[in-house]
Amino acid sequence: MRDMLEAIHTKADPADRDTLKTLEEEWLYTEACPADYATRCRARQPR
């Protein structure tokens, strides 16, 4: 998993790396699941 995340960060636009880090912390490094993950995913999409 760590190798995959590092590969994603390497290929990501530098401006998006902070967003990726936030998503990692919110989704991968917490035990709690969001009550409605579909709503959270839509909230992250560009407008």
Helix tally? Answer: 3
Which spans have pLDDT < 50 for at least 5 consecutive residues? none
Give the % helix.
Answer: 55-70%
SSE ordering: HHH
Shape call: globular
Q: Structural class per helix/strand content?
A: mainly alpha
Assembly status: single chain
The total beta strand count reads 0
Q: Radius of gyration over alpha carbons?
A: 12 Å
Q: Mean pLDDT, rounded to whole units?
A: 78
The biggest beta sheet is recorded as:
none
Please give the alpha-carbon distance between the first and last residues.
29 Å
- Tally of separate domains: 1
Strand coverage percent: under 5%
Polypeptide structure, described:
This protein has three helices and no strands. The radius of gyration is 12 Å and the shape is globular. The chain has 47 residues and is mainly alpha-helical. The termini are far apart. It has one domain.
Spell out the blueprint of helices and strands:
Blueprint: H1 2-11, H2 17-28, H3 37-44
Keywords summarizing the entry:
64% helix, mainly alpha, single chain, globular
